[in-house]
Task: structure prediction
Amino acid sequence: MAFDAPSDLADDVLLRRFALGDAAAARALTLRLTPRVHAHAMRLLGDRAEAEDVTQEALLRLWRIAPDWRAGEAKVTTWLYRVTANLATDRLRKRRGVALDSVPEPEDDAQGPAGLLQDKARAAALQQALAALPERQKQAVVLRHLEGLGNPEIAGIMDISAEAVESLVARGKRALTAALSGQRAELGYEDD
Amino acid sequence: MTDERKTDRDDDGLESFFEAARRMEPTPSDALMARVLADALAAQPVAAPRALPRPGAWAQLREALGGWPALGGLATAGVMGLAFGIAAPAGLADLATAVLGQSTDTYLVDLMPELDFDIAMDLSEG
Result:
């Protein structure tokens, strides 16, 4: 077949096809983008139900804006990270004052039970420490160290300079280090 | 992307927390994936071609007879037959006379005279 498989195409090409009514593009974008948006929402919110709502809403906004999307102006993922963070911030403001005791439910992987438990404990501890950070610091740290983005892209998502990103990440990490220092022994640091 | 975060290792132990969190990346439920896909498909313009309407009885009959050209010939033949029935052209009577002869008497023509013989033989033998 002369057509490229949807999985090989760039996000904005798929989005253009989506806007023309291509159902295969809709499926490819859903499979590709939902996990990323969901993981980001989970890390910002620490609550599965709220993260699912935010994921669905962020992607719904993408589907609606698709016909007006102008290729080359912004990366689809940059736009999605920004919308997800905005939606998450709205949620956090609404529930401010409520104890943040929920953490992501860890998923099974191929590790042995001991390693898995240690990862679970560390991921949970990090999630709780992240929840206590100011929102912009949390967003910058999550984008940099958990989503793995570079400073220029984070700057685009947060609409600030790369230097400001660096500053937010540094302050966020200092706060995380302070929050987690008391738990290092409990979380198996002597094994590392 | 992965290299970026790996080259940014800190020396205060935070990296092992980040690594654990990356390994434990939350994955969306099937139900969420289904909801997102349903939203996506609902937001799309209707581009799928609709099923062609089933042809009606007249259309099916027309196609069975060979389409419009055949139907045209059939209609012409019908009209001519009707016209001859109402008012036959003057030459038609002469043509009939020429072909069938002057008399309108009918003749019995035995096309297979030997058949009678065979039957007669069968009867006599039976």
